[in-house]
Sequence to fold (355 residues):
Amino acid sequence: MTPHHTRFKEFLAGARDTIPMMVGAAPFGVIFGTLVTSGPLSPWLGQLMSVAVFAGSAQFIALGLIASNASFAVVWATTLIVNLRHVLYSATLAPYVSHLPLRWRLVLGGLLTDEVFAVAWAHFRRRPPGDDVSPYHFLGSGVAMYLNWQIWTVVGLLFGAAFPGLQSLGLDFAMVATFIAIVVPQLVALRYVAAAVTAGALAFFWQDWPYKLGLLGAVAAGVAVGVALSWPRGARTAAAGASR
Amino acid sequence: MNYVIMILGMAAITWLIRTAVFVLGERIAFPPLVRTALGFVPVTVLTAIIVPMAVAPHGHGAELTWRNPQLVGALAAIAVSALTRRPLLTIAVGLAVFFTWQGAVLPMLIR
Fold:
């Protein structure tokens, strides 16, 4: 077992590695809070959503659905579809947490947003899974992201009404810049570039599909391209030839 | 108060999705093909989210032009990230280019 000061250092390192994501998520938290104040939800319900759901895109879509008087069943079904990608995240990280007690896995799973996944995966992927993998870096990243989301939701709720032009300013570009900072360093081989280009192009062409299903389809196609290019030896040449 | 039920329902669904594999993990074995596939998930998900945001920021049609500050800022961020691999620098330069382009360069050029 790691000593206390090492755990704390890992916790802090996880939080520190998450700072770029926190900067990127800040405008989304503020805009979310602002949108709540202009809709039918009372402010404390907006905060409850950030505290209990902690999933930006699902929260935004729920606000839109509530404003258009959608039934709860539609809101829940949409939440399910939009968040399905998290199954892939937890499957990727599962080998690194499988040795932990159940309460740890329930907490870490609950904190697993897109951003925390990106940080945790960047941290874990260089080391082999096993019983000596410490969860404190992952926890630090998740807790930092969670507190960050709560704070910026409050800011949006409190001051949102004072910045009515916030959305038209294009602050969501911070999200684009953040994700570019994560993706580009990972494009270390042609198969990653091919997978990313496929997913990006199809996500653009399929963006009008309902419920973000175009996004899921684009990801599936990008992953398929990446897998085809990863096949060993003869199979790889055949797959590359077939896909041209 | 009905909204409380709706929000708690959303929370339960989200939490179940996120923890399912972590909880059932020991009973789920992933074959090598699935592991290979999962390795491509982060890059493809993040790219699929940002490309429509940068290329079609208003949600109707591609804006492949220097008049699109999202696209100009994204290209600047890609260049910085490819050259330095430093996340904070990438985000800072990307945001600076985006806001400069939107607030100063475009109004000047269009006039």
